[in-house]
Amino acid sequence: MLKSSLNLNHFLICLASFFYAGTTLAQETILKIEIDPAVTFQTIEGFGASDAWTCQFAGLWPAEKKDKMADLLFSTQTTKAGQPLGIGLNMWRFSIGGGSAAQGKASDIGDEWRRQYAFLQLDGTYDWNAMPGQIWFLKAAQNRGVKQFVGFVNSPHVLFTKNGKAYSTDGNCNLNFDKLPQFADYLATTIKGIKKTTGIELNYLSPANEPQWKWNEHNQEGCPYNNTELTQLYRGVNTALVKNQLKTKIQIGEAGQLDYLYNNGNAKKGNQVDQFFNPASPNYVGNLSHIDQSISGHSYFTTSPEEKFIAVRKKTAEAVAQIKGLRYWMSEYCVLGDEVLKGEKRDLGMVTALFIARLIHHDLVISNATSWQWWLAVSAGDYKDGLVYIDKNKTDGQVYDSKLLWAFGNYSRFISAGSKRLQVKTIGADVPQVNVSSYLQNKKLVTVVVNPTENDLDLDIEVKGNKQRAVQTYVTSDQYNLSPYKQYRDTKQVGIPAKSVTTVISN
Fold it and tell me: Which of 175, 188, 418, 496 could form a disulfide with 457 if both were Cys (CB 3.0 to 4.6 A apart)?
C-alpha cells in the first residue's frame, strides 16, 4: 500500500511538472522578426479624430474637465514618472455644420446632440461666436501642438439645400446646384473667419462626407452625391478658394466604404480613384489647383470575414498605386458592428482596443494609409464610437478615458509626421494572430506590436545593418495605459504582454 502511494505521488508530481512545463512553454512564445530600413513604404502624415456632435457641448464644460479631455487627446507631455498625459493626436477634424441646430426641432433631426451649428445664420448673417464649444477644442488642439486641421462638411448649409433641411428627403443629392457658388463662398468665408478669430488656417477642406449613402433617415446631417455631382461640387469649391486666395486644399473621397474607391460595381458612385484622378475620366479633378493629391475612405463594414478584411485593403492600395503621387487617408472609423464586434454598448476595456489596434495595423500595412482618423473624439453615447467618453450633459459631468484611447496612442503618440513605414518580415515560426509594424524617422525606430493572444511574447527584433540600443517599451493592457513598461539594452528579448498593444522605441 505504501509503495503504491509513493508511485501514485510520483506520477502526480510528474503530471504536474508536465502541465507546468507546457504552460511555461506557451507563455514564452518567441517571435523573431527582421526589419529592413532600406525598404520603405508610405510616409505617415498623422493620426486624428473629429469634434463632431459632442464637442459643441463638451467645449462648454468647466475648464478643469474640458482641459482633461483635451490633454487626453492632444497632449505630448508626461508625468515625472514618464507616464504620457495624452495620445498626442496631430490632426483635428472640425465639423462645419449645416445649420440644423439653429432650426431646432424644425430641423427634423430629433437628437439635438446630432444637430450641428454653423457660423452662417438662418437670416444670412455671420455670427463668429456661434460655435464656442468647437472653437474651444480647435484652440486647445493648437495649444497642445496639433498642426494639421481639416474642415469637413456632412451637409451643405440649409440655406443652400433643396428642401431647406440638412438631410435628404428622397435619398438624392440635396444640394441646390443653382446655389453652388453661394455655398462655395460660404465655405471660403468660414475658413477666413476661423483664421481671423483663432489664427488657425484649415489645411484641408472636405466638402462632402460618405456621398454613397441616402441620408434620408433624418437622424443626423448628411447629403448624397453621385460622382458627377461631386465633380461639380469640387470644381465650385476650387473656384471659391482661388477667388478668396486661400491656401486650403480640397480633400476628396470620404467614401462610406473602402470598395467605393475602386470598382465595386456601382458606376455612378464607385471607382472614385479612377473617376477623380484619371485624366481620361469625364470627372477628372486631379489637375485643379486646390485639389489635394489624396483620396480618403472609411473602413466601415469591411472588417470581417478575414478574407474580405484583407482583400478589400489590398484592392484599395492597388487602386491608389495606379495614380502616381496619390496618397490614401483612412479618414473615419468607429465600431458600427460586424461578425466580430457589435457597435452597441460602450466599452472602456481591451476588447475594443485590441480590435481597433489590429484594424489600424491592417489599414497602415495593407492599404498603405498615410493617415488614420477616428470618428468621435469625445462621445456621450452608449456606443463604441468614442476615444474619450463623457456623461450626456451639456454643462458638466464625468470624463472617462478608454483603453481604446490609449491603444490608439500606441500609434499616434510615437509615430510622428514624416515617419516612413518599413518592411517587417517574420523569421522562423510565425505567430499569425500577432501584428507587427515598424516606422523610422531620423534615427528613431518605432515598432508597434498588437498581441491579442492569452500568452506573453518574447520579441526578437533584428534590424538589418543596425544594432539597436536604448530600448523602451510602452504598454496598453488591462493593467497599463500607454505606460512606460521596461527598458532593454538591445532588441533580442523584448517582452510583449498578453492581450496588449506595445510600442517598442529604439535608437
Answer: 496
